[in-house]
UniProtKB/TrEMBL annotation, chains A, B:
SUPFAM superfamilies: cAMP-binding domain-like. Pfam families: cNMP_binding. The lineage of its organism: Bacteria, Pseudomonadati, Bacteroidota, Chitinophagia, Chitinophagales. Residues 11-88 form the Cyclic nucleotide-binding domain. Signal peptide: none annotated. It comes from Lacibacter luteus. This is Crp/Fnr family transcriptional regulator. Gene3D superfamilies: Jelly Rolls.
Amino acid sequence: MKNILFDFISKYISLTEDEKNALISLDLFRTVKKGTVLLKEGQHSNESYFVLKGCIRTYYIIDGEEKTTAFYTEMDALTPHSVINKTPSDFFISCVEDCILSVSNSDMEAEVNSKFPKFELMCRKLSEELLAKERIDFDEFKTSSPEERYLNLLQKRPDLVQRVPQHQLASYLGIKPQSLSRLRARLLEKKS
Amino acid sequence: MKNILFDFISKYISLTEDEKNALISLDLFRTVKKGTVLLKEGQHSNESYFVLKGCIRTYYIIDGEEKTTAFYTEMDALTPHSVINKTPSDFFISCVEDCILSVSNSDMEAEVNSKFPKFELMCRKLSEELLAKERIDFDEFKTSSPEERYLNLLQKRPDLVQRVPQHQLASYLGIKPQSLSRLRARLLEKKS
DNA sequence: CTCATTTCTTAACTTAAGTGAACGGGTTAT
DNA sequence: ATAACCCGTTCACTTAAGTTAAGAAATGAG
């Protein structure tokens, strides 16, 4: 399990054994049951998550309806914007499947960053890369139709379509569950 | 003009006079005419932009149509994702108005970052903050209708609706120019 | 100033998403 | 075993966005 984390980190910086041991001593790993809510709307939190195994999602409750906006799977990192902005959260985080997560909090991160300046560099590279990815995703979303978004998702994250309930996928694609159902039926008809 | 840049930087770190002078000696400022294309699709570039005055936009050309996905105005910073990923650009950047920009390139940034580690910290904070903002914008986009997006834009960036051509705003809102025109007419009717 | 181009609007028609309701399959709890 | 619930699908209907086309208004270049 540790190796997944170290493999991820090695994409940005290289660690000595001492540094690896320092990380391990922080006791970051946590296993969580499907359905567990990690963060609630209104809650103050300073936790960040890294998915070692499983899938978590962020969702809002708007007019009593769940609106899922993101899924994080193996090797994905998530720091809620409420943690960055030090505001109460406006969304929820919950586990779509049983998960193994690495959970850190901002105090720990500040401490590690000052002890090992290397981590500061990793954080910068990681945020820059995630920002670039987020912009690409947003641009693709804006410039395509629901159908194109669904086909795009089938290409890029085919696993999601299998492991996530349809109604959660629908709001992720910016549409209602009924529309996703119809859209899929339409596509099946086209093929034949 | 320099003061706008220093005001911006002071939100993240504090600078000594020496550091300020080092920045000024880099000769960053550039004035650019409306319509100038700063970056073309396919081009390799390592330039980042900070808007001191004016407005620039990013757009794709898809099936011969311009699709505008973002506007950057006073105090906004833009590093194209192609610069982060060291790939040829897939979009264009052009000036919506006459602009005064601060233009830096990644070599300069690397040098400044190693000379003044403080800048590394600023870059991390800035990217984290921008990522948080981008996620909020994306979530809002996904969870709202074109009409709600337009009303939201009127609230958050009323200046944009004035200074930017409608057809560019339309694709920014994820719809066609004709639909934006109709949507606006519909809203005017509702009011009365 | 004038011509050409671009931008915005309007209209008629097509297509797809939103809405409300109903149904069946599956799971869970009692 | 059965009732309650959740989920995905389907249907009929409404609403809004896409499409094509035309024309008016504004802009820019010569």
